[in-house]
Amino acid sequence: MKEVKRQLAIFLAALPAAWLRYHLALYFSDLSVFPWATLLVNLAGTALLLFLVQDYLKKKAFNQHLVLALGVGFCGGLTTFSGFLLDLLQLLERAAYIQLSLYTALMLGGSFLLLLLARKRGQV
Q: Where do transmembrane segments lie in this chain (predicted)?
């Protein structure tokens, strides 16, 4: 029964995240050919996941079910590595090499910067 509750919590947390990712993709697709939506959701999901994991490990202040629901469910439903790769492929096929380089640098550099900030936050 405990495992069913965990899986249900993950499932329910993933629903609004996937809905949000979908609607952000629709909104940004009308504004630009640059994949802003994927960049935004991946960096936001990374920041949230780092915050959750860091605080959970440091203080154990969160319930384990909540961490699973938000970490695996919400952040997993929100972020998309496959979407990132698809965006890279589309930029490559359009020969948009500058955008491809900028997108890759922003995604990887932004994620790494968030990791460094989370690490520094944990040391205070």
A: 35-53, 65-85, 97-118
Which residues contact residue 43 at a Cβ distance below 8 angstroms, ignoring those fewer than 6 apart?
A: 107, 110, 111, 114
Encode pLDDT of 7-44 as tens digits: 898 999 999 999 999 998 888 887 778 899 999 999 99
The pTM assigned to this predicted structure is 0.82
In whole angstroms, what is the distance from residue 25 CA to residue 3 CA? 33
DSSP string across 8-25: HHHHHHHHHHHHHHHHHH
104 is in an annotated binding site: no
Tell me: is residue 76 an annotated ligand-binding position.
Answer: yes
Which residue segment(s) compose the domain that 11 sits in? 2-123
Distance of CA 80 to the CA centre of its chain: 7
